[in-house]
Design a protein that fits this description.
The chain is α/β, with parallel strands linked by helices. 37% of the residues lie in helices and 21% in strands. Strands 1, 4, 5 and 8 form a four-stranded mixed sheet that branches. The protein has a two-stranded antiparallel sheet with strand order 2-3. Strands 6-7 form a two-stranded antiparallel sheet. The protein is globular, with a radius of gyration of 20 Å. The chain starts with a helix and ends with a helix. Residues 133-138 have low confidence and may be disordered.
């Protein structure tokens, strides 16, 4: 989505006079409370049953975007001009665990390409995964919420949560460093 080639490719697939409205979704685990010792919970637990619940819930929530993305909707701009807009799922920002949930990939595999676990982290990415209709997750067939989205390949949509990476890499280090200088009760006040 962040390159002009993506925009050109998507725009070329639309009828003349239409334009794209990228849909960006972000998801992360939820902080339960500051007083629970940093306990966190994921919006959807990582079991086969919860995979189905997650995908069904997202399918219901985002259903209006399927028709709007396919047929377009007329929007009046600030100048009064009417334009046909196609909302397209373009980016899904989340951390690795949720990427596996969203893309229906097994844990410890790449949600973007079919790399083997031993090749994860290589500088050269593999070929992109094929978009699938039904995916096998822990022995259970799941119909992903994104299957009917027009012009969407979920494997190219998933993006790392930069905020989380910064938190994991910098903030946690700073907290550990501060705890070496002062005690926990002074840091929490």
């Amino acid at each position: 989505m962040w390159t002009s080639s993506w925009w050109e490719k998507m725009q070329a697939k639309l009828p003349e006079g239409s334009c794209i409205t990228p849909v960006i979704i972000a998801m992360d685990k939820t902080q339960l409370t500051q007083f629970s010792g940093g306990q966190q919970a994921y919006p959807a637990a990582h079991s086969a049953r919860m995979h189905r619940v997650f995908h069904k819930s997202m399918r219901l929530l985002l259903e209006p975007l399927v028709k709007a993305g396919s047929e377009g909707i007329e929007i009046v701009g600030g100048d009064g001009h009417v334009c046909k807009v196609h909302p397209i799922l373009a980016c899904y920002i989340t951390d690795y665990l949720e990427q596996c949930l969203v893309t229906c990939c097994k844990f410890r595999t790449c949600p973007k390409c079919p790399q083997k676990q031993s090749a994860l982290g290589d500088q050269e990415p593999g070929e992109l995964r094929e978009q699938c209709r039904c995916c096998l997750i822990s022995g259970t067939i799941v119909t992903p919420f994104w299957v009917r989205f027009p012009l969407c390949c979920i494997h190219t949509c998933v993006m790392a949560d930069v905020h989380q990476q910064l938190f994991q890499g910098i903030i946690k280090y700073l907290i550990t460093w501060c705890l070496e200088l002062i005690n926990k009760s002074e840091l929490d006040c």
